[in-house]
Design brief:
The protein has a single domain, classed as Phosphatidylinositol Transfer Protein Sec14p (3-Layer(aba) Sandwich), CATH 3.40.525. Helix content is about 40%, strand content about 15%. It has nine helices and five strands. The protein has a five-stranded mixed sheet. The C terminus is likely disordered.
């Protein structure tokens, strides 16, 4: 579940919270989840939002081991590539909260794939108190003791916004790239796939 905090931080950064819900892990498509996060959410924000930077808060409380095992090094490398080449100038911080012990190695591996500049912006917090050293409590949902709407309320608002963009997403889904018109070959097409579409990535 993705949800955005309506208020900006004092530095004019937008906080987006991602929460793992209790879903059937056997039916969870990690690539599709990441595609949703890295494409659809960003698409809406690009059209409607004005912010000086992005802060991601990833709540791992319901992150189960069988889901973590689906996050392969290849997928992490793809995410790192997107962070470095698409989001790097806007990404101010990634905060993991409530990470289970078996997820720490995944966070460490992701940081090792990022540049020094971005890796220093990735944090892991055992408690909300640790997080509030970086983000004012007032800017967190009421679920975390903050003054914003609850996560369920904010998620519902975001779901409605996604529905408003359904036609746009359908259009993006049907778009193709004519490689014959590309003046120069993509430098990282072996990673992103022939069309440079995140959803086309092949993994082992």
């Amino acid at each position: 579940t993705a949800l955005c905090i309506p208020e900006l931080t004092p530095s004019k950064h937008r906080i987006t919270i991602f929460r793992y819900e209790n879903v059937d892990s056997a039916k969870s498509d990690i690539k599709r989840i990441f595609a949703h996060v890295l494409r659809n959410v960003y698409e809406v924000r690009m059209h409607e939002d004005l912010a000086m930077g992005e802060i991601y808060v990833i709540d791992c409380e319901n992150l189960k081991l069988d889901i973590v095992l689906k996050i392969t090094p290849v997928i992490l490398k793809q995410c790192a590539f997107v962070f470095e080449n698409v989001h790097s100038f806007r990404l101010k911080a990634i905060h993991y909260i409530n990470p289970p012990g078996y997820f720490h190695n995944t966070i460490t591996l992701l940081k090792s794939m990022l540049s020094k500049k971005l890796s220093e912006r990735v944090y892991s917090h055992k408690t909300i108190n640790d997080l509030t050293k970086y983000i004012p409590l007032d800017l967190l949902p009421s679920d975390y003791g903050g003054k914003q709407k609850s996560c369920s309320e904010l998620a519902e608002l975001w779901k409605q916004k996604m529905f408003e963009y359904k036609d746009r997403f359908d259009q993006l889904e049907s778009m193709k790239v004519n490689e014959e018109l590309r003046p120069e070959k993509l430098q990282n097409d072996e990673l992103l796939g022939y069309h440079g579409n995140f959803k086309k990535i092949e993994t082992d």
